[in-house]
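Risk register update: the risk of archive-format incompatibility is retired. Evidence:
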Amino acid sequence: MSRRKRKRRTKGRGRARRGQGVPWAWALGALGLAFGGLLVWAVVQALTATPVFLPPTDVVGHIESVPPDHILDEPMSIPVQKHMLEHADGNGPPGVVINYNCQDYECEPDMVERLADIVRDYPDFVYLAPLPNMTAKLAITRVGAIETFDTFDENTEAAIRAFIERRR
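Archived output:
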């Protein structure tokens, strides 16, 4: 082999030849774009999703205040609900709160009165109040537990009573 050919041959050793690193760069670039696109999609989904708003099941942030009655026509504030979950009437046993949302859901004509009848059966610790903007038609809560319903019928009524009884 001539000296000239040897020089040419050894000249390229130890370095990548032109075009050899390009497939890795393209793969890393495509991966970066895919990850960036996924991140943008996740942020858009988080910003445009309807937030879930349900009544509380904890007592953190409660205030020492008691609602005027166990059956309310006006919403009970979240801090007061938390206080009723802690102890009904401010010093009694842990309470149960039934919230309903007839603003965003179609409620049966007798639903509120039937719920009030349930509350009257448990006058010491069960409360009823509307909760507009809630993401359920009905929600019943006690400390550490919640059940929601988008319909109201005999089965729902039985489930609400069972939820209350499990609290005892």
